[in-house]
Specification:
6 strands; alpha/beta; six-stranded mixed sheet; RNaseH-like_sf; 2 domains; RNaseH_sf; Nucleotidyltransferase, domain 5; RNaseH_domain; single chain
Amino acid sequence: MKLVSLSEHLPDATYEVYTDGSKINEETGLAVCILKDNDNIQNFLFKLKPYNSVFQAELAAIQFAANWAVSENSKINLYTDSLSSILALQSASSRFNFVNKAKTDLFKAKNLVGLSWMKAHVGIQGNELADQQAKLATTTGEKLSIPAPRSYLNRTLKQLILHEWCGYWNKYTSASGIRVRGFLDRVSPNFLIYNKILIYFLSGHGPFPFYLHRFKRVNSPLCTCGRR
């Protein structure tokens, strides 16, 4: 992946573009606001899925603005209050395909885009406009589909696994299962034991002669002390 190195400001840019992302009541949106000579000439509003993050919205807004500059063959100065997006674009590599795609698009537009960070909510007209439009986009924006973040996928998988685990737990009708449920009425990751030595001793299933002898892995069930 090529490094993205953009100027912070293009002195001969035709447009100033402000971008922002927002999440309100689990709804996510982004806005790209185009200004020329301080006049707001066009706004692009997009609504994402509830599982998409604000970071994804902010990065998608920057990516859209860069692609817009290429499609218009116009130079722009692009402003964002998302420092995390700029750092992601400047990183040497990323394990996220979404970030890498944005980096590729920015690299293609590097001669047309000046990218700089500005502090949020300091009274800059374009930045305040983008913030307002991004909030509006959470309800009225055009639908845009981008991949779910890994954090959402991990959380969803954990919930599915816990649901399956709970089903097996409640169906276990052996005497030991019923007895254990008298102490632990539900399953929870909080009850997991990660120390394998402790698990060996609590379960009796470990590198013990009496256990290994059951599977004919050792000749005697006795320990070196002569006891089981």
